[in-house]
From TrEMBL:
Membrane spanning stretches: none
Name of the protein in its database record: D-inositol-3-phosphate glycosyltransferase
Keyword terms: Glycosyltransferase, Transferase
Keyword Amino-acid biosynthesis: no
Record bears the keyword Glycosyltransferase: yes
Pfam families: Glyco_trans_1_4, Glyco_transf_4
Annotated Glycosyltransferase subfamily 4-like N-terminal domain residues: 34-191
Amino acid sequence: MDLDPARLLLKPRQTGESESSPMLIAHLIHRLDIGGLEKVVADLVNHLPHDRFDHAVISLTEITAFKERLHHPRVTFHALGKQRGQDPAVWWRYWKLLRQLKPDLVHACNLATLEAAIPTRLAGVKRFIHAEHGRDSHDPDGTRRKYLLLRRFLIPWVDGFVPVSRDLHDWMLHTVHIPPEKIHPIVNGVRLPPVPNRSRPGTDPNRPFTIGHVGRQWPIKDPLNLIEAFFQLRRSYPETPLRLILVGDGPERPAIEARIAEYRLADTVHLAGWQNDVTPFWERFDLFVLPSRAEGTPLTILEAMAHALPVVATRVGGVGDLVVDGQTGRLVPRSDPCALADAIGEYLFDPARRAMHGAAGRERVAARFSQERMIAAYLALFLGVSVTKDQEF
């Protein structure tokens, strides 16, 4: 089916709806903060047709300043104050909130919210959609028995499961054993920016080759893998001016700082911290690197490709659906800094390869991973429109 949002808007309103009563979607997440799935929620709130949808964003824990990125005129925010570990009382608070809000459907994201399926039903909400943007950090391969049993037990309570990658789709189908009719693949998408004006190394003798990374500094993201690879590059090419910029923050930062000090990299590694606007960094990078141990469909890779950057990344999760090895970048095994350093090294002295792979990545995003395509797919799902299940990854 054609997923043109304009055409989907022609669908008649459901029984009981009036022109003055938009559909209310409650988006349930663990914490509203900077991150990939949170950006997807923000895109849905901002870009789904405002005359058809109102939104409530419910965080199990807290709401941060990230809420300023959500621009819908009728979006509300609700923090439930969940305590660390088990906090059964949070579901009582959640149930009471739904009784007040009376949403038409709940769109929940990732494992932390899956238990909400039962109180959602008990609150009288007719539809519960659960999206998987990546497996839990304590279960990166999706094989932990207690989580599998929980997912299987809750299948009858969930109307639809959304995997954002082929890896997650196949895992849902063959490992969790979710019925195929309940699985609705929707890949992440990003806005295509203007063609970047990026000065290349060599045009300015004082400009180093700049390797960039954007992401949370968590163990599962393995930023130390990138530090190790960069250290090896410095040893292999001591006369080549190199620079590494890491945008983001998290619990791994002290370990990163310690490794930078140990390897005496302070003059060439810049920790930029959290940034409200990453745009200026994309034009400073010559290459983007993602060193993760596990991923769903990382928006940072799509954003890098949209900015015409070649990408070197670990072959995990849905990364292989995005990066075409040898055409838009390079894929390497996870937790292998030698392989990561070698792949980065392929681009250091080959500007033609960088330009060709960067352009190919941008074209790939435009064709298959646009924000418009993602929004249209969610629009169809939320409206209950029947769409094809074989969306390309």
